[in-house]
Amino acid sequence: MGDRTYDYVIVGAGSAGCVLANRLTEDPDTSVLVLEAGPSDDCDEVRIPAAFYRLFKTQRDWAYQTEECKQLQGRRLFWPRGRMLGGCSSINAMIYIRGNRLDYDTWRDDHGCTGWGYADLLPYFRRAEDQARGPSPYHGTGGPLRVEDLRAVHELSRAFLAAAVDWGMPPNDDFNGAEQDGVGQYQVTQRRGRRWSAADAYLRPATGRANLTVRIDALVTRVVVEGGRATGVTYRHRGVEHTARVDAEVILAGGAINSPQLLMLSGIGPAAHLREVGVDVVVDSPGVGANLHDHPAVPVLWFTQGTDDLYSAENPLGMMQWFVARRGKFTSNVAETGAFLRTRDDLPAPDVQLHVAPAMFVNHGLTEPPGVGFTIGPTLVSVASRGGLRLRSTDPRLPPVIEPNYLEATEDLDALVAGIAVAREIGDRPPLRRFLRSEYLPGRQVRDTESVREYVRSSAETLYHPVGTCAMGSGAGAVVDPELRVRGVAGLRVVDASVMPTVPRGNTNAPTIALAERASDLIRGRVPLAAAPPAVLTDGGVR
């Protein structure tokens, strides 16, 4: 395997990297190399929707761990991140959520991200999408990313929907349409009962192109910068170090952990920190690794009665239903239903999302549940707290130091406490109450505000959505500009969730794919798709 020159080298075959690999190689005269540190995605646990948690802490998971979180009783949290073709889209719960209009308008108006408002991104959400329900002003068909309704919805999930409406939530059959507030079933990135990852949607259709090279088990160790320009990357492939050169650009698509880590290993980051660990400074960029934030979630768990749960599918009949017909409980994404709500009347958009599972989802699914049960997971989606990451050493094989600073802002803690109260009240409404035998966590003894706050501190976990560590913007402190070009280095871009200046209200896979779709046009020098017409944005009172 000789070293050679390409037009583009893409670091990471996750959600964004797969999109870029496909779109850039649509031009047969453009050569692209994709370098993925992990293995292929060829295993049943990737394909079977309900089995995603069985990939955690395997060779297909980076399996990061945070430092001690001072607001979470000093706990170190497990952060799974996809390490294979498809990245996190091969290991996630497949929920198709775009976020709120306010999220993207905030990028544009508060962070100077011209071209990244909701009206600008809606056409890219539509271009990416193959919506099973058909086209509409909000949805597209014929795109690479299949979006469907779940094939099987558990009776506990349906009971939650009825209970939430009984509590007072408006029903919402499309969280990605005119309104985000309300309760409904999640749509998923599946095709006929199996996961439809970014690798399925974008990478595989492009692998037959002569101008695309995909290399797995290839850990990129450094971006080569010469004369102020990125000219290639060094990487290790099966014990041998290689250099891939570029004529056009190096594009980092490793995600909110790996991309800032690689920038810092390459001398692009906070100068004082780089010198401290022994990295020669190429560009002093204080924002690299800063602005880290994520969606924390807390579990509210009940023992159930008069029903089963998703774990009951783990038998020969359940397996046969999936392998023969792609039917049954194994088609579940676990978090089948949910809601978006505002815990205060003065909020401009939802601050809490509920993820609802017809099973006890304990410790990321890694711990055997104590019985048959049900979960509501209040999740903070409007996040005020900020953390950061930094290098542990100059060894690219070592994970960085991750300090998320969860709940550092009191308003974040207050919102989760309020979310638990809502979850409990919904659980006490008749449609759901008849199935709930007793509360397991927080437990009946945890009722006063301070004890609930302590429960949040003792039980909050990641909802798997870190962003912001290479934030884009127009200000001098931004790591990348609104065309996602790294400030201070020519020929280098970052295209992944790390460039999001604030996390969207909802699951981040669909926003990452739309972001990469728009980035592909910017990289190719194409005129971006026309912004959505005003009539669409005002129909139904889009927020």
Quick structural summary:
26% of the residues lie in helices and 21% in strands. The model has no long low-confidence stretch (mean pLDDT 96). Strands 1, 2, 11, 12, 13, 14 and 26 form a 7-stranded mixed sheet that branches. A 6-stranded antiparallel sheet has the order 7-19-20-21-18-24.
Mind explaining what this structure looks like?
- There is one protein chain.
- The chain is of the alpha/beta class and 543 residues long.
- Helix content is 26%, strand content 21%.
- β13 and β14 form a beta hairpin.
- The radius of gyration is 22 Å and the shape is globular.
- The protein starts with a strand and ends in a 5-residue tail after the last helix.
Output the keywords.
globular, alpha/beta, 14 helices, six-stranded antiparallel sheet, single chain, seven-stranded mixed sheet, 543 residues
Report the portion of residues in β strands.
15-25%
Total helices: the number is 14
Overall mean pLDDT stands at 96
Question: Could you tell me the radius of gyration in angstroms?
Answer: 22 Å
What is this structure's SSE topology?
Blueprint: E1 5-11, H1 15-24, E2 32-35, H2 44-47, E3 64-65, E4 78-79, H3 101-111, H4 118-128, E5 129-131, E6 145-149, H5 155-167, E7 182-185, E8 187-188, E9 190-191, E10 194-195, H6 198-206, E11 212-215, E12 218-226, E13 229-237, E14 240-252, H7 255-265, E15 268-269, H8 271-277, E16 283-284, E17 296-297, E18 300-304, H9 316-325, E19 337-341, E20 352-357, E21 373-380, E22 388-390, E23 401-403, H10 410-427, H11 430-433, E24 436-441, H12 449-459, E25 461-462, E26 492-494, H13 509-524, H14 534-538
Parallel strand pairs: 1-2, 1-14, 2-11, 5-6, 14-26, 15-16
Antiparallel strand pairs: 3-4, 6-8, 7-19, 9-10, 12-13, 13-14, 17-25, 18-21, 18-24, 19-20, 20-21, 22-23
